[in-house]
Amino acid sequence: MKNKEILKWTLTTILVLIGVYVLIRLGFWQLDRLESRRQFNQHYLEQISSPIINLNDESNHQELLNMEYREVSVSGFYNFKNEIYLQNQAFDNIPGYRVVTPLKIDNNENLVYIERGWISLEDLKDIEVINSIYTQHQNIEGIIRLPQSESDFGGISSNASESNSQFFLYVDLDLLTTELDYGLLPIYVQLKDVSNNQKPYSKLPEIEITEGPHFGYAIQWFFFASLLGIGYPFFVWKQIWGEKNRSRE
Is the pLDDT of residue 24 over 80? Predict the structure, then answer.
């Protein structure tokens, strides 16, 4: 076998080995995603079947970070001064904002942010009128949601506008804490569905309890890896055997 052919087969073999490795890694990546999905499903089902928590009585606030999607109740008064608006939010394909307002909890010195629901872009100019409906004492029911940070969004800051600190891309409690005069719970609450046609319109996320396509994708990647890993040696043997037969002729 000539030196050029040896070099060609060596480089080809290296590329095939890299390809097999990448395909196997993709298979295990899908299995990791499957396990994460199973853990999420288990956590979600445990939380929605657990008793409701009254945040007015809850003292161990750090434990709330392990209870996302748990149903909670809380009472107090809204603090509209520190209200924020999440941008790039759509409802029935209409662009708008999600309104997130701190609630001063009764009988203690803490606030909790409440994601109250969605308003359209045009509704924002009437937000004071909308909020005037909610100036009285509030009894809130919703679910625990976890805040997000820049690391969750690839280093993108939550503050969408440097000129107006009320507009955010996501709920970043670390950034919001600096603007408040009270303690802040480490979670926020997403309001339960309310069918009174009052703005903001609240609607909880619809979550499907499935394992998704991850196992099927993993099998596909492993199949491709085995196909390449087994097929390539057979291809090489066939090429070498063919060259030997041609040389004999």
Answer: yes
Whether the Cβ atoms of residue 76 and residue 104 lie closer than 8 Å to each other: yes
182-226 pLDDT tens trace: 888 999 999 988 766 788 998 888 888 999 999 999 999 999 999
In this structure, CATH architecture of domain 70-191: Beta Barrel (2.40)
For the chain, what are the domain ranges? 3-43+211-248, 70-191
Pairing outcome for strands 138-145 and 71-78: antiparallel
* Angle (CA) 83 84 85, round 5°: 135
Report the distance separating Cα 55 and Cα 58, nearest Å: 5
Quick check: 49 and 132 in contact, CB under 8 A?
no
Residue 112 gets which letter from DSSP? Answer: E
Note the pTM of the prediction, 2 decimals.
Answer: 0.80
Sequence-ordered list of residues with C-beta below 8 angstroms from that of 77, at least 6 positions apart, any chain: 103, 104, 135, 136, 137, 138
Contact 30, 214 (CB under 8 A): yes
**Contact call for residues 171 and 149 (beta carbons, < 8 A):** no
